[in-house]
Amino acid sequence: MVISFINLLRPVADNRLAPPDVTKHTRIVSVLGIEPKWASPRDDGWFLSDFLAFWHVLNRLTSSQTWLHCLDLDKLIGEHKRYLHGSPFEPRKEVLNETMLAKMKTTCHAPEYVGGMSIRKVFTEAVHRECKAADEEYHNVLILMFGHGVEGKGIDIEVTTKKRLRFEKLQKILQRK
C-alpha cells in the first residue's frame, strides 16, 4: 500500500507541483479543517477553493472517496455567491456557486458536512477504514488535508479546539490497519 500526502507534492519539470498518480483503484480521503468564521474568500476561503478544485478533478476517477468538511456551504454561497480557484493575478476557475452546489449534493462522493468537534475523529476513522480496505485489496490511498499547520508537524483539523492532527498520530493510524 502506498500512502500519499498532498503536502509532500513533488516538483515536476516545469517547476509546478503535481499530485501523485491516481488510478481507478486509488482510495481518497480528504478533509478541510478551516474554521467556518474564516471561510470567506477574503480570508481562509482559498482552502475551500483548493479543496473543491481537487474534488472537481478527482470526483469521478475512483470509486472510493471520502470528502469531509465542517462548513455550511449553503450559508457561504448565500453570503459570498461564488468561490474561485487560482491566482488573483491570472484567470481563475469558479469552483463553487449556487448551481454547482445543488449539483454537487446529488453526485457520488459529494463533500460531507461533519460538525467541527467531530471532524478530526471522523477523518481519522475514515483514514483507518480506507487504509485497511486498501491493504486487503492491494490499492493505494491518497490523503488530502487542507488547513493551517506547521510544515512537517501537522495540520489544524478540529477547528473549535485548534487541535493539530500531528503526522505522528496519522502514522500510528496507518500502522494499525
Description of the structure:
This protein is of the alpha/beta class. It is built from five helices and twelve strands. It has helices spanning 45-58, 73-80, 98-104, 119-137, 167-175; strands at residues 3-5, 10-11, 17-18, 27-32, 64-69, 82-85, 93-97, 112-113, 141-146, 149-150, 154-158, 163-166. A five-stranded parallel beta sheet has the order 1-9-4-5-8, with helices on both faces. A hairpin with a 3-residue loop joins strand 10 and strand 11 (154-158). The longest helix is centred in the last third of the chain and has 19 residues, at 119-137. It is globular. Residues 1-16 have low confidence and may be disordered.
Task: Summarize the helices and strands and which ones pair or pack.
Layout: E1 3-5, E2 10-11, E3 17-18, E4 27-32, H1 45-58, E5 64-69, H2 73-80, E6 82-85, E7 93-97, H3 98-104, E8 112-113, H4 119-137, E9 141-146, E10 149-150, E11 154-158, E12 163-166, H5 167-175
Parallel strand pairs: 1-9, 4-5, 4-9, 5-8
Antiparallel strand pairs: 2-3, 6-7, 10-11, 11-12
How are helices and strands ordered from N to C?
Answer: EEEEHEHEEHEHEEEEH
Please, how many helices? 5
Q: How far apart are the first and last residues' alpha carbons, in Å? A: 11 Å
- Morphology: globular
The share of residues in extended strands comes to 25-35%
Determine the fraction of residues in helical runs and give it as a percent range. Answer: 25-40%
Please state the structural category.
alpha/beta
Radius of gyration (CA) equals: 16 Å
Annotation, overall tally of beta strands: 12
Main sheet overview:
5 strands, parallel
> Which consecutive residue ranges, at least 5 long each, have pLDDT under 50?
1-16
Mean pLDDT figure? 82
